[in-house]
TrEMBL record:
PROSITE patterns: PROKAR_LIPOPROTEIN (PS51257). This is TRAP-type C4-dicarboxylate transport system substrate-binding protein. Keywords: Signal. It comes from the Bacteria. InterPro entries: DctP_fam, TRAP_DctP_sf. GO terms for biological process: transmembrane transport.
Amino acid sequence: MRRIPRYWTLPLAVAVLAAGAACSGNSPKTEDVEDAGPVSLKLGTADDDGKPGGLAIVQFVEQVRTLSGGKLLVYPVWEAAGHDVRQWDQGVARMLKDRKLDLAMIPSRAWDTEGVTSLRALSAPFLVTSDALADKIVTSKDLSAELMAGLTEDGATGLALMPEGLRHPFSFGPALVSPAAFQGKVIRAAKSDLGDATVRALGGKPDDLVGDAFGAGVRDGTLGGAETGFVLSDALPVPGIATANVTFTTKMNTLVANSALLGELSPENQAVLRNAAAATLQWVLSHRATESAYAAAYCNRGGKIVTATPANLQALDQAVQPLYGELEQDPNTKAMIDRIRTLKKSVQAPPTGTATPC
């Protein structure tokens, strides 16, 4: 039996029962005839039901069922693009575009390979470096709406942005604390044009290895590290050395609908989806644990946490500056980066928002 990690404090059993209630109908169908029975929609994700994004989906399923009085049902499609496939997030995005899915939960980082540029500011290196800042971004309705506005270019409509966790370098050898430490190392990272460019700017070689290849790379020494978060670190083949104060970005999930499908729904059902997304965002914000708690659990599993020196942090920041030059050639991206920088000055991360070395 597969173990379900306890990422948030709400008992998963309650959420799973809710999902089961929502998924007990016939095959999914779209809205076409009034009073023809419940409208059924498929929501795809690259995650399974034990990941943070999966738990948010289970909550969204229940919110939709409750708010619609059972007249609108959402069916999760776990690992929608397949198990152990590369470009797993992009696979889900393409299924949504092709209407093989009605809804999807897709990390914001993934959209840049699909021609969506409005979300790139969220993945700008070393910009969104605290849960507190991420929370401020997703709860600023005008900012989150502008960030998701470009999704329409790929036939999607954003319903909500949901934060997941900070992303750090985890090394399977010497700690990744400086550009010199990254030099020539293969770094496992989820596919993203900007994410790949960030790893390259630091001297590494990005690769979205999956399955046996991931573990084999660690065992034979060809894989130097991984870009991930403490919340997902139990999925690493072996515990490594995490650099706590090097935060590439914060993973954000976009909850989206196929735009054409959304337009076919009644105004009432469109409102249900939007209200359920807003309620799910509030659930995510109130039920996730802190960065320090995730880090402590990682240490208890045998992981090690270190910090980079101020000089190394400055060198890392300098290495990625050419990327900002490229990003800011787009006026909209530059405006989003500037707004996030302004927000960052007003936000102070609490002590529990920082991992402690171990």
